[in-house]
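Figure 2 data, in text form.
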Amino acid sequence: MDCDIELEIDTGSARGEYTVHVVRAPAGGHASGMFTLDVDGILDRLPQLEATVLASAVAARRTMPVAEMAVREVGQQLFQALFTREVYGTYRASLGAAQHAGQQLRVVLRLAAPELATMPWETLFDPETETYLCQTEPLLRHIPAPDYNQNPLDVSPPLRILGIVASPRDLPTLDVDAEKDHLSRALAGPVAEGRVELVWSRSGTWDDVQSMLLAGPWHVVHFVGHGDYDSRTDEGRIALVGPDGRAAMVRAVRLMALLSVAAPRPRLVVLNSCSSGEMSQSDLFSGTASSLVRSGIGAVAAMQFAISDSAAIAFAHGFYAAIANGRTVDEAARVGRISVMASPDGTLEWVTPALYVRGGSTQLFTLRGTPRAAASEARSTSAPTSGGQAGQAAVPTSAPTPGWQASVPLQAPGSGTVSSGTGSSGTKDDATAKSAQTNADQAMKRAQLRALYVQASAELRARRFEQAVELFDDLLTLEPGYRDATALRESAQHRLDMSRTYREALAAEEAGDWLAAADGFALVQEDREFPEAASRRQDCERRQRISDLQGELRYHSSLGSWGAVVDVSAELATLDPNAADPDGLASAARAEIEKAKQPEPEPAKQPSPDREPQGSYTTADLHPEPRRATATPAAQRPAATQVPASGTPSAKPPQPALAWTPLAWGGAALALAGLLGTFIVVFFMWFDENYWQDNGGDIVLRILYGLLAPLGYLLLMVAGLPERTLQARLAMTGVVLSAAIFGLAGLNYTVEVTAVVASFILAAFGLWAGILALKDPARRTFAWLLLLPTVLQPIIWIQGKGVFMESWYMSQALPLLLHLMLLCAVGVVFVVMARRLRTVPAAGPEAGPDANAGTSP
């Protein structure tokens, strides 16, 4: 097919690693890739998926049930694993090419890894278009086998279908008549048009099936019954009826031999059983479906999950109608899926059918001639069947064979069947049929309720509480009081409420809303599911107390209440020593208190004209009153009147102390940037024999320099360099931004104009910041450390022999190497000076608040 995209998937070097290769595609090319897939995790979820799919058939469910999330998650996981970057590009291009050609793109999966055959590939979900692939494009599983290309079988209508219903008495009972009626109703249209002829075997025994196969020809075999997967033999099986009426489990290899007696061999087999599509994880051909395809059957449609009656009827109707109209089998499977999607709204059972094909051709039949009218040639007579089953025997003139039954509806679908007996017997038969249908409907409802219960319980156990609550709501809507669903729903709701409260508390903690976070953690701290809630609550309460005390400290500082400021700072120190001096307010308050304790100079004593002459004294002289301090608080004095002891006003207020911690980290960042850059440039210049600089080395250097150097300058600004003024911070901001632009855009293989401009801007801002720092004599050492690496940075563009702004990788980049070494040395000196600042003792009264602001080495 011209519009096929074939993907071959094989094992990789380890468990969970696989390779995907585009064998052919409309867009051309042979893209490939590797991916990892949690196969065991998906296998563990298969029971949950089956319960989800079966539960979705309940008519009362929502249009978009929350349970679909499980199917969509698995489908998206498979899609994103399979369609790697290159393969996805080929897929999108091929999709466009197919649409341009007016055709559909068919996705063919060639599964060479056995365990991948167990994956539900029919759930493949494209998150970009938000669609399932098999809903819009034919999807099939290719089984590698010899004799790939079978020519289509020429068929003169009708297309003959052999129906087999096997209901052993020791397995869950199947309503044989209802099963036959379901398929007959699904094929009523094609049968009435003469395109299809449906013939039922008398019983599901081996001998009966073999007799029917010998009385062919049969183009299609449709099996309705029980199937399973035998993990001991690693092979799929179906259940026929034994001589004693019990189950006779037929392995795939025996079923292959049974079907081979038909001449010609049927090209299509439909297995409408519970697990006929299940496969082994170690043998690609152990499953019933794949074994039949390998043996020579052209295609097998199998059910990978249990399927409801309504979905089985809908799939058979669309599938066989498309086959009878000459469509390919993969297109017929897609039409069948679309028929399943019709009712009920929101059902997910369209993922249940899986199509396995042999070779590259999916055109199984070539219909030739005009269909004959079925009603004119059909002859029906009532005949008893073995096992208590009743049916209609119709022997076509073309193949008169006793012991088989042909089903040709004579009325419109849903109107019942024609009986040749009396009216009373017909009424009795109708009543029996209605009773059987009622029992079947009740059994299906019980199965669907059970599936909902299992799905909701699984979501609760997996701690997906929102999905569990919605599923339990659906279950209780359909069946109030079902088992312990009410109690489980309340438990899920409680867990959902607690989880939401905990998440909201975490969000409040992240946002710094300590009070709301503490309240939220207090609500869940008694729950064992949240063991950290109590400690988090205590921490948030402590942080809230710190925030309150810092606000109080600032309030006292604004009023000049220095004693209260010191008291609040002492209480803060018990909670967090690092928070005891916000913005240096506590240190300033202690300095003011110490200043107030210094005695004021006494005025010179002048003899009073009214005092007694020397030698005489009064009672007041014997008992003088103590003097009271009348000094005005420093905060209440005008700034202009506060002068130093020398009597001359200060030219500039002293600078606050440098913060040693960010100063040390800033120096460390600069030292690391210079050291790593030095190593890389040395390697480029003298040891790079494989030209790493051409294959990503320059990117590494740019990222290291463009992140670490700006970070170092930013931390220096936080530490207080060059000074704590708006002008200084603007200068340092320019240094940070221009250093980042220079690093990330500048150290390329060839010189970039952006880098050159950024280096000169960096030099200008560095000069500005250095001049500001030089104004304070105590910070001149820091000023020179800030000036040197920034102002001298443009020298890196000067290359060997005086050439300016050539590719520095193509010549000896000695100026760049010198710059990086200088940057490393400057960073180390910053770290050393920060350590010295840390060891300087606290300032005394005579030193003032700037005692450790600018200690020179």
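Caption note: The chain has five domains: 4-137, 153-369+403-407, 440-531, 542-596, 660-839.
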